[in-house]
Amino acid sequence: MTDIAYLEAYIAISQVKAQYCRGLDTKDWVAYGDVFTDDVELDTRPAGGTVSYGRDEALRIVRSAVGSAITAHHVHSPEIKLIDPNTADVIWAMQDRVIYGPDRRSQVQYAGHTGFGHYHERYVRQEGRWRIAKTKLTRLHSDNYPHEPQR
User: Fold this and answer.
1) What is the torsion angle, in degrees rounded to the nearest 10, for the CA atoms of residue 102, residue 108, residue 109 and residue 114?
2) CA angle 27, 30, 31 (to 5 degrees)
3) Are 58 and 149 in contact (CB under 8 A)?
4) Dihedral angle at the C-alpha atoms of 15, 43, 71, 23, nearest 10 degrees?
5) What is the tens place of the pLDDT at every residue in 120-133?
6) Is the dihedral of CA 73, 76, 81, 86 positive or negative?
């Protein structure tokens, strides 16, 4: 693979992840869902969640977890390894801030958190577009807030 092809993939994959964060934080579920393959595997077990298969199920799980929350997701320092011209493994350092809505607070027993960890992802290029085919969220640390934090 040429340096230019690698840079093109790097930029395109970075834009997909930016759309992921923006769609999630603005609750634009169409834009958020568009970053995934139809058969995406979403694994949040290492962060206390579950595993799901398929775009519709992944969206259902994410919406039920943070649909009423105020969220801010930041990703940086991508480690992008191209497996072939249409497949890449990427690790993103991440930080998220979540302030849960009243409906979710009673389920998780706290008002919100600031978390630090990594997304471990597989991207595939389908019909010229990069999408997330597999994503796993791991946490290094999470500060949980018993009461709603200052905004």
Assistant:
1) -90
2) 80
3) no
4) 40
5) 999 999 999 999 99
6) positive
Q: What is the pLDDT of residues 32-89, one digit of tens each?
A: 999 999 999 999 998 888 999 999 999 999 999 999 999 999 999 999 999 999 999 9
Distance CA 6, CA 74 (A): 23
For 35-48, write each residue's pLDDT tens digit. Answer: 999 999 999 998 88
Paired tokens of 54: 């398929």
Q: Looking at the whole model, is its pTM more than 0.85?
A: yes
47: which 2 tokens?
């962060």
- H helices present in the chain, as ranges: 3-26, 29-33, 55-66, 102-108
